[in-house]
Structures are given as structure tokens and as C-alpha cells.
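Hi team,

Below is the intake form for Octanoyltransferase from Candidatus Aquitaenariimonas noxiae. Please confirm the fields before the structure is written into the shared record.

FORM ID: S-0412
PROTEIN: Octanoyltransferase
ORGANISM: Candidatus Aquitaenariimonas noxiae
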Amino acid sequence: MKYRLLDLGLIEYEDAYILQQGLVNCCNGRYGYNTLLLLEHPPIFTIGRTGSSKNILCDTNFLKEKNVKVSYVDRGGDITFHGEGQLVTYPIFNLHEYKCDLHKYLRALESVVIDLLGIYNIKGERLEGYTGVWVGASKIASIGVGVRNWVTYHGLSLNVNVDLDFFSQINPCGISQVKMTSLKELLGRDIPIAEVKSHIVGAFERVFNLEVLN
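The structure came back. Fields below:
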């Protein structure tokens, strides 16, 4: 499957969402391209279709002090945090072309993260009954997607060097007492985002059998 790769750097959540919608409208197998977006977001709590603001544990003073936005969004799942130091990937993929259903797609996204973690000699695992990737008892990657006319949007977020304290202000993914982790915490050093981007692109290409368009 051929695809375009776009690195957006640091971009507001709302701006990335608008871009995704335009790409979804074009990605119908005839007029558009499958596209993989790489990016980071400024601090924001996003609440998915099955989520609730009850999973925000902090008060409005914390949100104002830390300049954290809150947004209700049309992806699956509950609440999560996005911020600098977290690598977000939004695949705009035509599932008809990939020949898979939504369940298989979610498992493939988990496989991307597990593949990448293996490069750092970290064992990533699935947890039965949940979507995402764990290392031991801690969650390192969250997944929440949207699908329109079998074209995907939203995607996955991988904690690289992100400030994990923000996750203590919510019940991540609606799970109370869940502990989040990051590559930095596991490896004891900062990991260049550019390095992780390169590895995650390779993982996507292996898992989804992708070929980048020149």
C-alpha cells in the first residue's frame, strides 16, 4: 500500500483535526492518498465518544495554570492527554485497500508500537480487554480512532519524553489507578523525537506493508 508521510511538528489539536478531515474526504482510493501524519500537540485533554469529564481529577485552576485545553472529540475511547514530548501518529488509511476490519486495524496499531519498542529492547504487550500497549503494569501508548466510509483518522500516541505528571490529573482511558510510563522513564534518558519518528515510520511500513510515495 502506497502512502504519503507528513511531519507536522508541533501543531494545535484543532488544526490537526481540520487537516485530517480534509485528507479523509480525499482518501477514497481514487482521488486521494493514504497518509501518515507525525506530530506533537501542545497540552490538551481529549475526551472520546465513550468518555466523561468525570475522569478529569484536577480543577480549573490547574488547567489555567498549565494552559491545558479540554476538547470533546469523535474518536473511540475515553480521556487521554497529549503534550510535547509525546509522539502522535494519525494514519489516514483506506481500510478497503488494506483489506481489514476495524478490530484488525486496532491490533495492527498495537503491533506498530510493540515493533518500535523492540528496537529499544523493551517488551511491549497487549492487555486483554483494553486497547493500547503496556510495558509490565504501565501503559506507554494509547489508541483511539475514528472511521468514516472505511477511512481512518485519529490514531495512536506514544509517550517519549512527555511530562507524565499530567496523566495523574486524569483517569487515563477512563481507567482509575492506571500508571503511565514513557521511553524516557524506562531507558533513563531523553530520546530524540526525530529518532523515534524514524523508528515508528519503519514500524508502520513493516506492519502495514507500506511503500512511501516519492
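SUMMARY LINE: The longest strand covers residues 138-148.

Thanks, M.
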